[in-house]
Amino acid sequence: KLLKKQHSSSPAASSDVCLFFQISWLGFLGLLPLAIPEAAKLRTEFQKSDFDMQSFLVVIITNGFMYTSYNLLSFIVLSRVATATHAVLNVCRRVCVIAATTLFFASPLSSLNIVGIAIAVLGMLLFAQAKAQPL
């Protein structure tokens, strides 16, 4: 919101989607130098006889679509709620992801994992309670 106010004449500030696109583009350009060395490793994997290109492309395209959708929706939610509320929702999302993957993959949680989840949920509940009380 601050960026849009300070640079209201910029085309990127015309809408949340345009701003999201510009930020994503800058992130892509920033990560590109790090991705180039990895391309050489991928090239050797592509040349192996047992490499399944179709499965690889399906996973890459699906992953890209899902991650972009998540980021766009997160950006839209952030533009409509307070930053602290968004952070609480993000904690809730992470706890749900941990629970879903634990159940789906049947992987046990360590005591440290459980303590971490409990701290995250407790912090989320305390924040919600503190926010609900009048000043």
Oligomer: single chain
Count of helical stretches: 5
Portion of residues within helices? over 70%
Share of residues in strands: under 5%
What overall geometry do the principal axes of the alpha carbons give?
Answer: flat
Biggest β-sheet strands, sense, barrel: none
What is the count of β-strands? 0
pLDDT < 50 stretches: none
How many angstroms does the end-to-end distance come to?
25 Å
- Rg, nearest Å: 20 Å
Q: Averaging pLDDT over every residue, what do you get?
A: 82
Order of helices and strands: HHHHH
Class based on secondary structure composition and strand pairing: mainly alpha
Describe this structure in words.
The protein has 135 residues and is mostly helical. The chain has five helices and no strands. Helix 4 packs antiparallel against helix 5. The mean pLDDT is 82.
Features:
135 residues; 5 helices; 0% strand; mainly alpha
Concise summary:
With 135 residues, the protein is an all-alpha fold.
SSE blueprint and pairings:
Layout: H1 2-6, H2 16-46, H3 53-80, H4 83-105, H5 111-132
Helix pairs in contact: 2-3, 4-5
